[in-house]
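Batch job 17 of 40 flagged for manual review because the log was empty.
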Amino acid sequence: MERVLRAALLLACTAVPAAAVADSNGLTVGAALGFVDTSGHVSWTDGFVGKLRHSDDGATLVRGFIDWRSRLTDTLDAHVVLDAYDDDIGNAIDVTEAYLEWRPVPRSPRRYRLKVGAFYPRISLENVAAGWSSPYTLSYSAINTWIAEELRAIGAELTMSWRPESLGGSHGFAVSLAAFGGNDPAGSLLAWKGWSVHDRQTRLGDKLPLPPLPQLGPGGLFERQHPYVGPIREIDGRGGYYVNGDWRIGQRLLLRATRYDNRANPEAIAGGQYAWRTEFDHFGIQMTLPGDVGLIAQSMTGATVMGGIVDNAHVVDTEFDSRFVLVTRSFARHRLTLRYDHFELTQNDRTPEDNNPDFGHAWTVNYSVGLSDRASIAAEWLAIDTDHCGWVYYGIGPTATERQMQLLVKLRF
């Protein structure tokens, strides 16, 4: 509770001087607080292997954030997001995204947008509300949880789009190309911890705890300097890229495809942190079904590698795959959402005592009701079934079902 009050106070102190310019600058201040009941292993956020974010039951500030947008000129905007969390990872408040966005006046059917700074890759179909939050559930899908944990582009993204009216029909297209750095360790948390389902977003200065490691003795694989990873960091001086394409048909269908490659040198190391070559393909669909039922589905398949070649494979060589389907229906101020996640990690390396394949699925049910334009209540049940044979290193069984109930009040100003 002391951490809750400290984080809430810091959030309030940050928000107060900005409140006077909320109308002109597009300021959103949000907070989610309430009660959590959880069962399972001690969380990865506390340095162990649990896939949930919370280890303890009770009252908590799940999240506080400030999402500030400012029109600097007629064609230039600024966007900054600050997050506050009730945990001991990093500072109480830190920056999650910060970028400038240039939108020149269109002089043809095409429209351009240039984003420069630190931002999320253009992937998620869930996280579309202020502060990269989800309007559907409290916890994100496994795919978007991993994006929140480890992916952030520090660079530039150029988007070219064609609006439906410019094409004389209902079809709209957009293509984005980004070049970025500062994301070389991305993949390390996934390879060693496995998939998770939660709502914590890594801030730019956060250092995330890694699971405890087997004791291999001098010269062992995991003899490293730090028991954490800072995923938003440049190590090898090589830039990465992603390409994204959107195809929208009216207001009822959106298709999205993404290719991501951080182009990291898997043998590079700096300050005790490794570079991980991480690449994946992503596909997503968002559509409206009969009865005004919304559907979102995403799929991601990729690989991440680290270290030199040993026995025809990198020291750590992991393939990953995840997909989810979400259905949601709103009734006036009420919304009911159901989501199913499936996730897998397979390993191709032959490193002794580093056996971390990860298989499982998760169910999430969320019900929320808007009390006013500024307040809502949400109740969420989440269960994750996992088979992770590496857990035997810590004296626990390789299979587990972890559950979480949350009852939160969400505020927006």
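Reviewer: the log was empty due to a logging misconfiguration, but the result itself is present. The CA atoms of residues 44 and 103 lie 40 Å apart. Unflagging and moving on to job 18.
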